[in-house]
Design goal:
With 349 residues, the protein is α+β, with helices and mostly antiparallel strands. It is built from 10 helices and 17 strands.
Length: 349
């Protein structure tokens, strides 16, 4: 299959009807929208009218993917968390009396599942034409949107209509489960997902204690640093047991033996990043990849527990965040390297 050349740009007002119909076409066979509008005859026009309301809403952010022939082949639609609630009355009107209860139920449950944090933007529509799927267009469109929100420091939220188990395209971009499953019927289930805004930082490095360090953040007279490479193939903990970061041998090592190699500018403890901090400071998988001092690919441990107390979350050699985790006492070998990327604040006044 020949690769599609494409560009991504904001939706123009004159394109609202066209984009709404494209999204409706993409969702025509979607199980969730089949539950929302059970009439095969009416579904396309009703869902299109539904998206016209969204696309005209104040604060809506929407992008289209355009191929080399200037044909629109995909679109994404985002709404602010505090969108004018009058749009729901308009939706009731355009979807009709028979379908309004389903759409209203989704809106009501959505507000219950949304995180209490604000402001954020919610992805309410995302479609790539079927013949284009599998060519990286969808991932590029999602990344384009998230890059814009990251630069503004705005987190995002979405409700996936396909089962989510911590993977797939949303997992690759740092989304994780939040709230409760939204169950409307056996075939109509939504999976609420949340993504903190990734910190956009300049890839500035400094040399300290014999290592290179990336500057993650500057705040007043302080800088947050993380080692550019995995600098020690130390186990997270010596023994296989239920363990927290506070009692781990990795924390003890970093704040005793390792800390003596650094100067007195270090503020507080040396630590490992958490899952949320990795998603905040590193925007995508490529930015999260790391190598050991010898240049070989290497996993790096985080201070967040895995899904069992004797597991610890890690970043894989592909830059993916493994929230399931790995054994706390995992040893490195020539075929499987895992180690530590210390982080700490310093005073540079």
């Amino acid at each position: 299959m020949a690769k599609t050349n494409f560009t991504i740009r904001p939706v123009e007002v004159s394109e609202i009807n066209q984009v709404a119909h494209l999204i409706s076409t993409g969702y025509y066979h979607d199980k969730f929208f089949k539950w929302s509008v059970d009439s095969d005859t009416d579904r396309h026009s009703i869902v299109a009218d539904y998206y016209k309301v969204y696309l005209r809403a104040k604060g809506c952010v929407a992008y289209v993917v355009e191929n080399q022939d200037k044909h629109v082949i995909g679109a994404s639609v985002w709404l602010p968390h505090d969108v004018d609630t009058s749009i729901y009355d308009e939706i009731d009107r355009v979807v009709g009396e028979a379908n309004a209860p389903q759409f209203r139920a989704v809106a009501d449950k959505s507000h219950l599942s949304e995180p209490p944090m604000s402001p954020f933007y919610q992805l309410v529509g995302f479609v790539i034409l079927p013949e284009i799927q599998g060519q990286g267009v969808g991932a590029a469109l999602l990344k384009h949107s998230l890059d814009k929100f990251d630069k503004m420091g705005i987190p995002t939220y979405l409700e996936a209509s396909t089962p989510y188990f911590g993977g797939g395209v949303y997992g690759k971009f740092g989304y994780h489960q939040v709230g409760e499953l939204m169950i409307f019927a056996e075939t109509a289930v939504l999976y609420p997902l949340w993504r903190p805004a990734a910190k956009v930082f300049e890839n500035t490095t400094i040399h300290l204690g014999g290592y290179d360090w990336i500057v993650l953040e500057k705040r007043d007279n302080k800088m947050l640093l993380i080692s550019e490479k995995v600098i020690h193939l130390e186990k997270y903990h010596d023994t296989f047991e239920n363990i927290s970061w506070c009692n781990s041998t990795a924390k003890h090592y970093l704040n005793t033996t390792f800390k003596t190699r650094l100067d007195r500018q270090v503020i507080g403890d040396i630590f490992l990043l958490s899952v949320d901090e990795v998603m905040y400071y590193f925007g995508d998988n490529n930015a999260r990849k790391a190598v050991y001092l010898d240049g070989s690919p290497c996993r790096w441990a985080l201070r967040t527990q895995g899904n069992m107390p004797y597991l610890v979350a890690t970043v894989t050699i592909d830059g993916k965040i493994s929230t399931t985790g790995d054994f706390v006492n995992r040893e490195s070998s020539s075929h499987f390297k895992v180690g530590l990327r210390p982080a700490f604040w310093i005073d540079f006044s």
